[in-house]
Design brief:
This protein is α/β, with parallel strands linked by helices. It is 45% helix and 13% strand. It is globular.
Length: 918
């Protein structure tokens, strides 16, 4: 095959090149196989061409194992199947599913996966298997190596082996006789060498992801079992795992968490073994620098914020049990151990959710704080090593000395102390020779330090490129030779992920390092971790938030290098891929460890490129919004009376003349227009109601009540008085202008809204209630500097109306689609409470995500909504339901289009279910 990419794929290659590591190589081509047969064919083509092939899914790996200048196979878009077996005791999973998605499916059975990496929101099963990832709890007893029951493997030759088949070993011997015999020979070779056996037993008695998992040569006899366990942790260098079946572990729901603060790191390290032996599920270390950084976090607990940190260190400890009774017993059993700790303050093991959340944010927020505050132009490196627990304190002291010696200031040390697993983070500039020399010298010294204490240079992040040259130093020449023999046996041409996991070039880890130039204030803090990607509605259509950011960096690099051809190509593609198909829903911010909202970047870019005629039209609309909404409603009512094909043809013509960004595309499921909004006086109101204008433009289905009408009916039924302000017909939350970048119109509308609502709320005495979650979010932004508060109608109803109404017509099964706005407003719990009050069964799809309708985005670019809702629609339509609910009219339209059933606001369902008997 030719590895030269056509012009239209240049942008994709540069976008996907970036992952969470500090390496950057641009692939020569990107492939997206969707089936095992397509993987086999891809391997054949790459093998015959002499190119290399790297498989990548979530792109969250930190050691460079997902980077290549060869062919990159993106397995994230497919291979996402999750099949629950034996009532959740086992689960079969494709490599493209994230850990969080799998655990969400298993949660209904009270089970979860054993591996529990901190990146579970974005890391996929493919990466978890390829790196033998672990986490805070699983240690070496519940990682992939210990919990994978079977897998389907595609070898470099194209041979497919299902290790669950009864004749799997015989099939391997038939299809790959050299592999079968070679694995048996390697097992005999290792067993015959006591030194090799001793080294393997020592290194694999704790976390260890350096090199291949040669412990498989000791643990298993059948070559097919050895093969399966060598695949785990092989980082895509031996073959492709197309699916794996895990034995799951129980979810422990009763938890108590505490923070033990010690005067020195030595004291904290000494306590680690005691706590681990006492049965604490997690024992997380934070050094003095970590505590100083944590004190800067906005929600740092007051007792920690007030601590005068000197040489202190802390252990975050947690007990996990199956029920409250068991937890109470564990608390009693461990009380003496905890009380005996030499801590500066008594340790409180709390079951209170807010306290527990703040303590975990203290630990997990370290990465955020350090990475977010790093100097511009630097790259963040998060490393992990492991040493025997008894040497943990001495090792950390030595590591701190290295930080001081090489001038790495504010480098934090944290990690999974009970495993001896230390993470440390530093920032470096790789565009300066002196910085590169410093990094080289530090790495060499750090390697010496880890090996001095008998540790492993990689505990759970995988060898990757960063430690590949050091494998021989950790294992010795004999086992290093065994590893190379494994590689040649299973990948004789060296096609799969060369340069990763094994390297005879001592300086290879210093090449292809990522330079992170300062580009734009909105995104410069991005560490390219990829946590944002699963939440993005355009992730399977065009770009993800990470990719939108890295392409801005790529454009800046191309401009600096004078590569005008690349710059023009990237700019041309970015308009549609980066700007037009971004929903600006802010869900990326909710997942981003450094709090970046890529929508802020996109809104600014839209403002900078907004066409003057369109900006003028929208500016005029902000002055006559009442007429605009009523006119839009009338147009939809007329359109609904005409044949859909006629209306759609007219909009297609308009789009061809004025552009897809200016003319919406009509579709048959769109409703007729709704009623105009009108003021409502009240003698003694408890709130000001702000009915959203989307209810005027888009009417309710089948003549049902609108969300506004349902809310007012519920208020009357509950005896709660609200008022609707004068001038409501011309007011809007401003989101249409803000999302499109029409800043003048947004400012004008904001001024009008603030003025009207400040008066209507009696100077802020009354809350403002809105009946569309995205509009609530927009109004809350306006209110932030205006002196009044905004509450969503769902939260208001759950608190004030729900207790005062009675269900008369219950619903059987209801599907609930939370929205990106309801999630960000934090009202999904109230949404679920209302749904549960009227429905016997409430189903929130596991595959729920932003629908991508985003105001009018779903009308301008219906392909965005189609892509964003595909997985959720497939899940919803797999069975019948009696009702479909959401929180926002445009999102309801998007889901109606996707599912083929009418979605209505949850308050419409509540009003219908609580009507007094006739």
């Amino acid at each position: 095959m030719s590895t030269a990419a056509p012009a239209e794929s240049v942008t994709r290659r540069h976008a996907i090149a970036h992952d969470a590591s500090h390496y950057l190589l641009v692939p020569s081509a990107v492939e997206t196989p969707g089936t095992v047969a397509e993987v086999v064919e891809l391997m054949r083509r790459v093998r015959e061409s002499g190119a290399s092939l790297t498989f990548r899914s979530g792109g969250t790996s930190l050691s460079g194992q997902g980077s290549t200048a060869g062919v990159l196979a993106d397995t994230r878009r497919h291979f996402r199947a999750i099949r629950v077996l034996d009532d959740g005791m086992r689960v079969s999973v494709g490599p493209g599913a994230t850990v969080r998605q799998v655990n969400a499916v298993l949660a209904r059975h009270g089970r979860k996966l054993g591996p529990d990496p901190a990146s579970e929101v974005a890391c996929t099963i493919g990466g978890v298997l390829a790196n033998n990832s672990s986490g805070m709890v699983c240690g070496i007893t519940q990682n992939s190596y210990r919990t994978v029951e079977s897998m389907v493997v595609v070898l470099a030759s194209g041979t497919v082996i299902d290790t669950a088949a009864p004749d799997a070993d015989a099939e391997l011997a038939r299809a790959e006789p050299d592999v079968h015999a070679g694995l048996s020979a390697l097992r005999e070779r290792v067993l015959a060498d006591p030194a090799s056996v001793a080294t393997i037993e020592r290194l694999f008695s704790r976390k260890n992801t350096m090199g291949y998992g040669v412990n498989a040569l000791l643990d298993f006899e059948r070559p097919v079992d050895i093969l399966a366990h060598l695949m785990i942790g092989s980082e895509g260098t031996l073959g492709f795992i197309s699916s794996a079946t895990f034995r799951t572990v129980p979810v422990l729901t009763s938890v108590a968490t505490g923070l033990a603060v010690f005067r020195t790191l030595t004291e904290a390290a000494a306590a680690t073994s005691l706590l681990a032996d006492a049965g604490f599920a997690t024992v997380e270390l934070m050094d003095a620098t970590s505590l100083r950084v944590a004190q800067q976090l906005p929600d740092c607990p007051t007792d920690i914020a007030a601590l005068p940190v000197d040489q202190h260190a802390a252990l975050l400890i947690e007990l996990q049990t199956e029920d409250d009774a068991a937890l109470a017993a564990e608390l009693r059993r461990t009380e003496a151990t905890v009380d005996a700790l030499p801590v500066v303050h008594p340790v409180l093991l709390s079951q209170e959710p807010a306290r527990r959340a703040s303590l975990w944010h203290l630990r997990k927020g370290l990465y955020t704080a350090v990475a977010g505050a790093r100097p511009l132009g630097t790259t963040a490196l998060l490393e992990d090593v492991v040493v025997p627990v008894e040497h943990l304190g001495a090792f950390c002291d030595g590591l701190i000395e290295l930080f001081d010696r090489f001038g790495y200031e504010d480098s934090v040390i944290f990690g999974h102390a009970k495993d001896g697993n230390v993470h440390f983070m530093l920032t470096e500039r790789f565009d300066r020779a002196e910085s590169l020399d410093r990094y080289r010298a530090f790495t060499e010294a750090m390697v010496d330090l880890v090996l001095l204490f008998g540790g492993s240079l990689k505990a759970e992040h995988g060898t990757g490129r960063v430690m590949a040259p050091f494998v021989s130093r950790q294992y010795g020449d004999e086992l290093y030779a065994v590893m190379w023999q494994i590689k040649r046996l299973l990948d004789p041409t060296g096609m799969l992920n060369p340069g990763v996991l094994l390297s005879d070039d001592p300086g290879s880890y210093l090449r292809d390092l990522k330079i992170t130039p300062a580009v734009e204030a909105e995104v410069d803090r991005c560490v390219e971790c990829g946590y944002c990607e699963p939440a993005c509605p355009s992730r399977d259509l065009t770009l993800t938030p990470r990719q939108r950011i890295v392409l801005r960096r790529e454009m800046a690099d191309a401009e600096r290098a004078g590569d005008t051809a690349l710059l023009e190509r990237l700019r041309a593609d970015y308009e549609y891929q980066g700007v037009e198909t971004c929903a600006v829903d802010g869900m990326c911010q909710s997942a981003c460890p450094v709090g970046i909202n890529t929508g802020d970047l996109v809104r600014r870019l839209r403002a900078e490129t907004a066409a003057r005629p369109a900006a003028t039209v929208w500016g005029a609309a902000s002055r006559q919004w009442g007429a605009v909404t009523v006119g839009a409603a009338a147009a939809l009512t007329v359109a609904k009376a005409l044949p859909p094909s006629v209306v759609k043809a007219a909009t297609v013509l308009g789009r061809s003349m004025l552009g897809d960004e200016q003319v919406p595309l009509y579709s048959a499921e769109l409703p007729a227009g709704g009623a105009a909004r009108r003021p409502l006086a009240a003698a003694d109101p408890v709130a000001v109601f702000f009915p959203a204008c989307v209810g005027t433009m888009f009417g309710a289905p089948r003549g049902a009540l609108s969300a506004s009408e349902a809310f007012l009916a519920l208020c009357e039924r509950a005896g709660v008085s609200v008022t609707v302000p004068d001038g409501i017909g011309s007011l809007c939350c401003g989101t249409p202008w803000k999302s499109k970048g029409y800043t003048a119109g947004y400012d004008r509308m904001s001024d009008s809204v603030r003025s009207v609502l400040l008066e209507a709320t009696d100077g802020g005495r009354l809350p403002v209630v809105c009946d569309a979650s995205s509009c609530t979010e927009g109004l809350a932004l306006m209110a932030a500097t205006a002196g009044f508060t905004v509450v969503d109608s769902i939260a208001f109803t759950a608190e004030r109306l729900l207790p005062a109404v009675s269900v008369t017509e219950p619903i059987g099964s209801m599907v609930v689609h939370p929205t990106c706005s309801s999630a960000q407003l934090g009202i999904d719990q109230e949404l679920a409470a209302i749904a549960s009050s009227i429905a016997a069964e409430v189903v929130t799809p596991v595959s729920w995500s932003c629908c991508g309708f985003a105001g009018d985005r779903g009308l301008l670019h219906p392909e965005l909504t189609a892509s964003a809702t595909a997985a959720e629609a497939a899940e919803v339509t797999s069975r019948d339901h009696d009702a479909y609910a959401s929180t926002n009219r445009t999102c309801e339209l998007g889901m109606t289009r996707a599912v083929g059933a009418d979605y209505e606001h949850i308050l419409v369902h509540l009003e219908r279910a609580t009507r007094p008997p006739a």
